[in-house]
TrEMBL record, chain A:
<dbReference type="InterPro" id="IPR029752">
    <property type="entry name" value="D-isomer_DH_CS1"/>
</dbReference>
<feature type="domain" description="D-isomer specific 2-hydroxyacid dehydrogenase NAD-binding">
    <location>
        <begin position="125"/>
        <end position="301"/>
    </location>
</feature>
<keyword id="KW-0521">NADP</keyword>
<dbReference type="InterPro" id="IPR036291">
    <property type="entry name" value="NAD(P)-bd_dom_sf"/>
</dbReference>
<comment type="similarity">
    <text>Belongs to the D-isomer specific 2-hydroxyacid dehydrogenase family.</text>
</comment>
<dbReference type="GO" id="GO:0009853">
    <property type="term" value="P:photorespiration"/>
</dbReference>
<dbReference type="Pfam" id="PF00389">
    <property type="entry name" value="2-Hacid_dh"/>
</dbReference>
<dbReference type="GO" id="GO:0051287">
    <property type="term" value="F:NAD binding"/>
</dbReference>
<protein>
    <recommendedName>
        <fullName>glyoxylate reductase (NADP(+))</fullName>
        <ecNumber>1.1.1.79</ecNumber>
    </recommendedName>
</protein>
UniProtKB/TrEMBL annotation, chain B:
<dbReference type="Pfam" id="PF02826">
    <property type="entry name" value="2-Hacid_dh_C"/>
</dbReference>
<dbReference type="InterPro" id="IPR006140">
    <property type="entry name" value="D-isomer_DH_NAD-bd"/>
</dbReference>
<feature type="domain" description="D-isomer specific 2-hydroxyacid dehydrogenase catalytic">
    <location>
        <begin position="27"/>
        <end position="314"/>
    </location>
</feature>
<dbReference type="GO" id="GO:0005829">
    <property type="term" value="C:cytosol"/>
</dbReference>
<keyword id="KW-0560">Oxidoreductase</keyword>
<dbReference type="GO" id="GO:0030267">
    <property type="term" value="F:glyoxylate reductase (NADPH) activity"/>
</dbReference>
<dbReference type="GO" id="GO:0051287">
    <property type="term" value="F:NAD binding"/>
</dbReference>
<protein>
    <recommendedName>
        <fullName>glyoxylate reductase (NADP(+))</fullName>
        <ecNumber>1.1.1.79</ecNumber>
    </recommendedName>
</protein>
<feature type="domain" description="D-isomer specific 2-hydroxyacid dehydrogenase NAD-binding">
    <location>
        <begin position="111"/>
        <end position="283"/>
    </location>
</feature>
Amino acid sequence: MASPAAAAAAEENLPQVLILLNPPAFTIFGEEYFTSSKFRFLKSYESSLPLDEFLSANGRPMRALLATAATIVGAGVLELLPDLRLIVTTSAGLDQLDLAECRRRGIRIASAGDIYSADVADCAVGLLIDVLRKISASNRYVKNGFWASKGDYPLGSKLRGKRIGIVGLGRIGLQVAKRLQQGFGCTVSYNSRKKKNPDQVPYPFYQDVQELAANSDALILCCGLTEQTRHVVDKEVLAALGKAGVIVNVARGAVVDEKEMVRCLVEGEIAGAGLDVFEDEPVVPKELLELDNVVLSPHSAVLTRESMMELARLVVGNLEAFFSNEPLLSEYEDD
Amino acid sequence: MESIGVLLMCPMYSYLEQELQSRFNLFKLWQQPPSKITEFLKSNQRTIKAVVSNARVGVDAQLIDSLPNLEIVASFSVGFDKIDLKRCEEKGIRVTNTPDVLTDDVADLGIALILAVLRKICPCDGFVRSGKWKDGDFGLSTKFSSKPVGIVGLGRIGSAIAKRAQAFGCSISYHSRTQKPLKPYKYYDNIVDLAKNCSILVVACSLTDETRHIVNREVIDALGPRGILINVGRGAHVDEPELVSALLEGRLAGAGLDVYEDEPEVPEPLLRLDNVVLLPHVGSDTVETCNAMADLVLANLEAHFNSRPLPTPVI
């Protein structure tokens, strides 16, 4: 058993992994799952120095960075990390990184890959069925003691045969499509940046989200947030979706014109919504809190024990592999 | 047809009631004060030739015997556990139910309950509504995809649940009266072994003498503290007090229930548990399915009184 001094010295010799923003997984799941005997973390946010000063003082030897979904890594930050050769993200998406700059500097990237897709798809399906079949609302009804006193709960709406419009047919959208069409007998169509190969993707493609909405009973938003998708679900799309239409959002709050959606829900212009994300989390429009035809979720679609365990395995595995000069577990390949 | 007396056992569905009213001479049992029921039945016993019942209010021997001209019992449900079939058979009374049209909705509800319990959809919704999200995150839930699902009863509804769970990558096993060789799922000839080998146990069989309390203490113990129980069958499938104590003592991770032993009464301790989702027997409660069920009840009655083959006879 090494003496405390020897242990501290050994620790000193470990390569460092820079973290700029506290990973939510550290708090929600536990930092202990992300530790390793092969590296140690250096957290810029634990310093009182502003970031650029901290990086000027400490950035030189940093070869690896652990980035979260919210950790924006642009040319300015990379300039202060001249030896950086690896960014590991806790997110599946990479839009917080300047990928072109990373490529130019020879910085490799390892993302969370596909580990969250099943859980996010399950959440989307769960929210959709909840809205259609009034699960949360009738659970509240029973727990308030109303079943015996007030009688039966109002009828819901059948899922089978519903036309589902998926906005964003990436890894998550494809899993949502599979569950709803193969499992539940819905009819899936989609909108995406580009039409997919029909030999691989059998669902009808709509170039225009408004047209997709006009031909759907429910819209499920699974796309990333980009300049093109910001407020893509706007007044026209919601009107096209119509009074019987349902919206499910497991993408980003800003994909929807939230104010307009709230107005539609309050005035009965659409039938209901299942929302895991909002424009200004954790703020949720107060009108939604009063509605029984909405189901609200605190951006927790990826927050299962299993996804967190898998994330920890991937993060530690990628970092250990990097420091041992072994192949990364989930290296991002440009296509 | 307007002279044929039809007795409606309880309020069911307004469309059904309206159609029965317009096509037949409709008697509404619940409009009689309890003390006057015997008298009411006696005065109308010659007219009443049909009874429409449902999952909650059945037709027992006493009622059958008080209606000497009863020819057909049409149930607005697929389950007929509350109908005295033996007595009906003895008297040559036809019995019909509403299979198939509600299979999808009940199966959908089974999956909805699994997701609601595992992914904590209901407590998460409450968390957001109460404003607690501003103070911190909710915490972790449990993944559904790829988990082993055990189904009790692989009939129409059980098979439909299996198909849905497969789309989530789940492995399916089942217990049934008999093995189904055409189904590609693992069969257990006893429910305890099924419970030992799954983390989600779904009850979807019909209620018979053999399946009453089929989910008992031993099964709950086998399912274990990380297992969840989903019941879209009948309340009597489960030993309810045993289920309650298992949940209170943490010997079961959670439960999603649509049915109870004494509806609409729900065991009081369950009302406070966040890991339990309680629905008011809504398995087939969509507009689309209730319309289809009502049409099937009407079709069975019309066929019978026009001497045509019944669409969905039980006997």
